[in-house]
Design a protein that fits this description.
The complex is a heterodimer of chains A (113) and B (113). Chain A has 113 residues and is an all-beta fold. Helix content of chain A is 0%, strand content 57%. Chain B is mainly β. Chain B is 0% helix and 50% strand. Chain B contains no helices and twelve strands. In chain B, strand 5 and strand 6 form a beta hairpin. The chains are: A mainly beta (113), B mainly beta (113).
Chain lengths: 113, 113
């Protein structure tokens, strides 16, 4: 069966420090991968999605970047964190087949201080 | 563009009460529709889905019917339990897209004993 791992679960980082969140998927090949952010009182905002190795699409301009160095690995990064980067970050995967849902990791709670 | 609107919360109910969380959508095509649930501190889990008009998704006593004529996918449960306390998200997935899910802002449900 397929599983998705996301870490760390919680992170407290000072303003201006770098960020690296990692997500890996097991049990499937060539998944579509997504990074979402959930800010307090707001819904889920799609940040990046990837349909293959090295292919990244950004949905919103921001202080973050994403990379996909391997088929089942998706990394969210920042060179210098801002206070506004605080939030709950969720990685997800799906297959590109109609009617299928996305499967989510457990999330990372990032607090920038 | 496509969008999802769901009723704002929080919603507070007593145990065994009837639950309705409204969800309407705007889409150019014929999307698949989903309800996800997020328990405190966790990622999102798929609760149910429907892929075409008049389909009814159901799981754990929850139901939602895909109504194309009213562009709605309201979530219902006849008798809620304390363990149903969570945030509920309505979402759609466009056909032929990269699999991106578009979410509503979420509705927080609290069930009191």
């Amino acid at each position: 069966s397929q599983t998705i791992h996301q870490w760390p679960a919680t992170l407290v980082q000072p303003v201006g420090s770098p960020l690296s969140l990692e997500c890996t998927v097991e049990g499937t090949s060539n998944p579509n991968l997504y990074w979402y952010r959930q800010a307090a009182g707001r819904g889920l905002q799609l940040l990046f999605y990837s349909v293959g190795i090295g292919q990244i699409s950004s949905e919103v301009p921001q202080n973050l970047s994403a990379s996909r160095p391997q088929d089942r690995q998706f990394i969210l990064s920042s060179k210098k964190l801002l206070l506004s980067d605080s939030g709950f970050y969720l990685c997800a995967w799906s297959v590109l087949r109609e009617n299928t849902e996305a499967f989510f990791g457990q999330g990372t709670r990032l607090t920038v201080v | 563009g496509d969008s999802v609107t769901q009723m704002e919360g929080p919603v507070t109910l007593s145990e065994e009460a009837f639950l309705t969380i409204n969800c309407t959508y705007t889409a150019t095509g014929y999307p698949s529709l989903f309800w996800y649930v997020q328990y405190p501190g966790e990622g999102l889990q798929l609760l149910l889905k429907a892929t075409k008009a008049d389909d009814k998704g159901s799981n754990k006593g929850f139901e939602a019917t895909y109504r194309k004529e009213t562009t709605s996918f309201h979530l219902e449960k006849g008798s809620v339990q304390v363990s149903d306390s969570a945030v509920y998200f309505c979402a759609l997935r466009e056909r032929g897209s990269q699999g991106n899910l578009i979410f509503g802002k979420g509705t927080k449900l609290s069930v009191k004993p």
